[in-house]
Amino acid sequence: xxxxxxxxxxxxxxGRDTAIIKAIEEAIRSVEGVALLDxxxxxxxxxxxxxxxxxxxxxxxxxxxxxxxxAELIDMRRHQGAHPRIGATDxxxxxxxxxxxxxxxxxxxxxxxxxxxxELGIPVYLYEYAATAPHRRNLxxxxxxxxxxxxxxxxxxxxxxDYGPVQFNAKSGATVIGARNFLIAYNVNLNTTSLRRANxxxxxxxxxxRVKRIGDPLTxxxxxDDKGNPVYEPGLLKSVxxxxxxxxxxxxxxxxxxxxxxxxxxxxxxxxTVKMQAEKRGLRVTGSELVGLIPKxxxxxxxxxxxxxxxxxxxxxxxxxxxxxxxxxxLDALRPFEIEKKVIEYAVSASQRKSHLVQSSVxxxxxETASESPAPGGGSVAALCGALGAALGxxxxxxxxxxxxxxxxxxxFSQWAEKGHLLLNELLNLVDEDTEAFNQLRxxxxxxxxxxxxxxxRTQAIQEATEKAAQVPxxxxxxxxxxxxxxEAMAREGLPASVSDAGCGALALEAATLGAGLNVRINxxxxxxxxxxxxxxxxxxxxxxxxxxxSAEVLQIVYxxxxxx
Length: 565
Fold this sequence. Notes:
Elements: E1 5-8, E2 11-12, H1 18-29, E3 35-42, E4 47-54, H2 56-73, E5 89-98, H3 102-120, E6 124-128, H4 139-143, H5 146-153, E7 175-179, E8 184-190, H6 195-205, E9 210-211, E10 213-214, E11 221-222, E12 232-233, E13 240-247, E14 252-259, H7 267-280, E15 285-291, H8 296-309, H9 318-329, H10 339-342, H11 344-352, H12 362-370, H13 378-401, H14 410-445, H15 452-493, H16 499-524, H17 530-561
Helix pairs in contact: 1-2, 2-3, 6-7, 8-9, 13-14, 13-15, 13-16, 14-15, 15-16, 15-17, 16-17
């Protein structure tokens, strides 16, 4: 099972003093096992957003040290900035990333809040999933009145802090801690310096909308409900909070948004809606910026959206799809957009500094295979061979989708390319997984066996590792069979000039299947569960027969098209 991974995205009320920002960074880095992925400072907002991940106990320790450092170095009595804020550490959300539930994240939020309140003497409010009352769930409601209104607000019974002293901390203000889903902080640039016009667009799009008025939408009489509260006309986008602001550093106004649930509102939907509403008001969108990190899936959705508009194949590498999203939304308009730093999956992978075979050069992989080391071996090579076969089928599909005169068939070929690309990615993962299975087996054989308990644990570990060492190449065979469907379709329907590539792909997939089958059999010899071993070998034999037949059919198509038969 993967280790639980928690993300923390604290917002500090300092974006100008680099010494203070660096000191907070070092407080986070001082906790072993925590990876600081991103630091995003804004001079005019006078605010810094930091993103770090790790095991829950490590993340909460790093968050506490950062909050303590901010409390020591930031004096809210002198703070001025464009962004709403309530304290030195304005907000500190915990976000479950993997192998941890929201309920567990809530418990960690309470634990951190209690410690901040008791040890640092800072009033703490809990929000989102950690909120202790419905009116405290929304960050904007807690922050209403900001730091300047806190001395009076904190004394009201309905705004008593959840943890810490019930008194105003003039230097540090208050801190809001909570547990929430992944939030995308996203700003869209406008070709105006008008704060009023930026706000008008923000009110158009945000879920809360704008205050309802009778008559003129700007000066008309405000409509109130029976409790005396203003009535709002909902905006166009669900799960979106937005305000307008002017950033002198950029020389333009922005619509600043929080996409609180990317599954409800995608980033490209927010961009396109702002663009539409801006144009209605005589404004132009000139790009956008991402504050902090973003899930890979969000940029892939965006890139696919824009590729579809251009009737381009979607079966291209993820990085190319992401670059399409970056270009289409102008995410690099204000500064270079480095996907390895801004996409959370890439940033986490880089922070772990784990070496992967699939990330090495072709030369290095071949030389490593040829070395005295037993891994990578035949299993990894079979997986790579399968990935290359699927890649060739995918290439033909992409070329066919882009062929002049075949515009009415682009979507058909794109679907084949997507299937091929999915298969090649899964096969690439198995290149490393096969080597990891071998290493797991080697470690199992090295386990101590000085007593019966240790012997039993060693035997169990060997059997578990042996089964994995057989299951990985069997999965290579399953995927290779599916890859042949792509090569067959492209041999029949694809670009005639590339039919030989489809045939070469079929041969590579056949070789992958037969090579992986050898690995299944050699590992099944050592399985104590003979019934399982027999079932695995039977499936491998069946796959070999099917793949041989399909590969021969593909070659017949290829030979006929290039005049060999």
